[in-house]
Amino acid sequence: MKTLPLRLTPGQDLREALEAAVRAQGCQAAFVLSGIGSLVDARIRFAGADESLRICGNSEILSLSGTVGVGAAGDAGRGHSHLHMAVAAATGEVFGGHVAPGCQVRTTAEVLLALLPEWAFTREADASTGFAELVVKAREA
After folding, report:
1. What is the largest CA-CA distance in the chain?
2. Distance between CA atoms of 56 and 39, rounded to whole angstroms?
3. Over the stretch 39-70, which tens digit does the pLDDT of each residue have?
4. Which backbone phi and psi does 20 adopt, to 5 degrees?
5. Concatenated DSSP letters for 30-82?
6. Can you tell me the distance from the alpha carbon of 64 to that of 57, in angstroms, rounded to the nearest whole number?
7. Angle (nearest 5°) at CA 87 between 86 and 89
8. What are the residues facing 61 on neighbouring strands?
9. Which tens digits make up the pLDDT trace of 3-23?
10. Is 71 exposed, middle or buried (0-12, 13-18, 19+ CB in 10 A)?
């Protein structure tokens, strides 16, 4: 395992930036060890919901965790990430759930990743849950 500290900058999409950072390291799998920062118009999907909630305005990332998976070459860069976060809106109200696409960094996001160069994360349909679930595989050379 190798660690990768990151500082994301204003305007970056949180999820896309984390996947790009893992890909740039030549890895296909990582875990988020820690994450804080600020967002504009955060998007969180609650458990069982089909659509994400847009938290309008400025918010603070209180915690960020999960897996970051990026496709192998030829997989069209498809992400296999599963991220959760807790954010506080400008009012202090706290929301938590799945990180949805479109979470734009406001001033900064400070994230520590654990890179797993020998492993690959993908998502495959699981008949018992009805969802695409994590599949962990040894990375092909």
Report:
1. 49
2. 10
3. 999 999 999 999 999 999 999 999 999 999 99
4. -65, -40
5. EEEEEEEEEEEEEEEE-TT-SSPEEEEEEEEEEEEEEEEEBPPTTTTT-B--E
6. 19
7. 150
8. 37, 87
9. 999 999 999 999 999 999 999
10. middle
Structure tokens given for 130: 């009805």
Bridge-partner residues for 69, per DSSP? 29
The tokens describing 127, both together, are 């008949």
Q: Which two tokens stand for residue 28?
A: 């296909």
Q: What are phi and psi of 24, to 5 degrees?
A: -65, -25
Is 0.90 surpassed by the pTM of this model?
A: yes
Cα–Cα distance, 77 to 72 (Å, whole number):
7
Residue pointed to by tokens 């807790």 = 86
**Tokens 């070459």 identify what position?**
73
